[in-house]
Amino acid sequence: MKQLRVAVLGMGYVGLTSGIAFAKHGIRSICTTTTPGKAENLNNGVPPFYEPGLEELLKEMVNEGMLSGSSDNVDAVRQSDITFICVGTPPLQDGSADLSAIEATARDIGVALRDMDNYHVVVAKSTIPPGTTENLILPTVEKYAGKKVGENFGLCMNPEFLRQGSAVYDVINPDRIVIGEYDEKSGDVLEYIYRDYDCPKIRCEIRAAELIKYAANSLLATKISFANEFSRICEKFNVDVYEVMKGVGLDFRINPRFLNAGCGFGGSCFPKDVNAIAALSKKIGVETPLLDSVLYTNELQPMHFVELIKNAAGSLEGKVVAFLGLSFKPNTGDTRETRALPIIEKLYEMGARVKAYDPKAIENFKLSTDLPIEYFEKWEEALRGADLAVVQSDWKEIRDITADDFKRLLRNPIVVDGRRTYDPEELINNGVKYLGIGWKNRLNLARP
Ligand code: UGA
Question: Does 269 qualify as catalytic in the annotation?
Answer without folding.
Answer: yes
